[in-house]
Amino acid sequence: MAVKRKHKRNTIIKYNQVTTNIGNGYNANTGKFVAPVSGIYMFAITVSTYRY
């Protein structure tokens, strides 16, 4: 997944590529996740930066 622009705080980040979307809860057009089934969800993210 790659995001090639700077973002302000509290903005929705839409990813260019979605590898896994079991249950289709993530909407790639809006960048929002809506739980398809009620329950407890866990999200994990790893962010790396680099400079040319």
Automatic annotation (TrEMBL):
Gene3D superfamilies tied to this protein: 2.60.120.40
InterPro entries, alphabetized: C1q_dom, Cerebellin_Synaptic_Org, Tumour_necrosis_fac-like_dom
A family per Pfam: C1q
Residue span, C1q domain: 1-52
Subcellular compartments: Secreted
Presence of keyword Secreted: yes
Keyword Membrane: no
Source organism, top-level taxon: Eukaryota
Keyword annotations of the record: Secreted, Signal
Protein name, as recorded: C1q domain-containing protein
Origin species: Tegillarca granosa
Lineage of producing organism: Eukaryota, Metazoa, Spiralia, Lophotrochozoa, Mollusca
